[in-house]
Amino acid sequence: MRSQDKVFTLYGDYLRFREGPVSVDSLITLLGQLDLSEAAVRSVLWRMTRKGWLTMYRIGSGSYYGLTPRGHKLLEEGSQRIYDPPRNEPWDGTWYLVAYSIPEDRRRLRDRLRVRLLWLGCGPLTSGLWISPHNVRHAVEEIATTLDITGHIEVFRAQHLGFSDIHTLISQCWDLPAVNARYAAFIEKYRPEYERHQAEADINGHLPPAECFVRRFMLVHEYREFPFLDPYLPQELLPADWRGDEAVELFRAYHNLLTQPAEAYVDSVCEVAPAVSVISEQ
Q: 20 to 30 A from 4, CA-CA: which of 10, 34, 197, 224?
């Protein structure tokens, strides 16, 4: 796990709703629970500040880090896909098509577009034509504007009239067996942990806060990969043995079980800047 990914998950699941930036000493303690040394923490915070994800403030001799608007936007989009994806929505058979033709000298933008389309749950029918059962028009417009490629991309709404069987069409665009296998592995890994911690909580009335912080962090960090993998297709397009809903239920139950003690641990560690108005940005 890259150190930057750890920082994103920490802010995304724990810190982004807190008032004010968080002290570097608190970040060193929290990330130390995740096997990052003090030097590694300082280094990744500096890199993420240079990249525009974090802002560093100083109060006296202390340093504090908070998300930039760009960082907030990224984590907000990620949170929506993780905690509130378009699952089990009614579908009228309409497909949304995203067609693009980006010049070779702008291929890096093409690669970035493909990553964003995957994040939206689109699948490649051909190299320059992606499809989705969800209305992605506004999201694609925002992506195209950000990448400055609005002149190279179009969005259509269509019906499939032939000639492939619908499940053959699905298999051309998405590898659902592979996604299902990942869900099954997630369930196999975390179901016993959840049941063990639930039993421990029932017996003792509480769970160790620091351990819950690490467990919830790892749970979220692993689960957040699914929005890149799962297109969240309507129920009628999924295989009969689909494990996605079971994995979602397990994730939510385990996350809820760990939340109170995990948040209590973060509260005990976090030192938040006393007043943003008196902080000088560096």
A: 197
* Residue 86 is assigned to a structural domain of this protein: no
Which three-class secondary structure state does DSSP give residue 97?
Answer: strand
Measured between alpha carbons, how far is 61 from 244 in angstroms, rounded to an integer?
49
- Give the integer Cα–Cα distance in Å for 78 and 11: 12
Distances (CA, A) of 211 to 106, 109, 164, 184: 46, 41, 51, 24
260/204 same-domain check: yes
- The pLDDT of 117-123, averaged and rounded, is 92
pLDDT of residue 10 exceeding 50: yes
DSSP 8-state assignment for residue 15:
I
Q: Give the tens place of pLDDT for each residue, 154-184.
A: 999 999 998 889 999 999 999 999 999 999 9
Verify that 274 and 264 share a domain, yes or no.
no
The CATH number of whichever domain residue 117 belongs to comes to 3.30.70.240
Q: Which domain holds residue 221?
A: 174-268
Please count the CA atoms within 13 angstroms of the CA of 22 that sit on its side-chain side: 24
- With a cut of 60, say whether residue 281 has pLDDT above it: no
Residue 185 and residue 261 in one domain: yes
Euclidean distance between CA atoms 28 and 264, whole angstroms: 17
DSSP state of 279: P
CA distances (Å), 204 to each of 124, 208, 209, in order?
51, 10, 13
DSSP codes joined into one string, 241-275: T--HHHHHHHHHHHHHHHHHHHHHHHHHH--B-S-
| Residue predicted with more confidence, 280 or 272 | 272
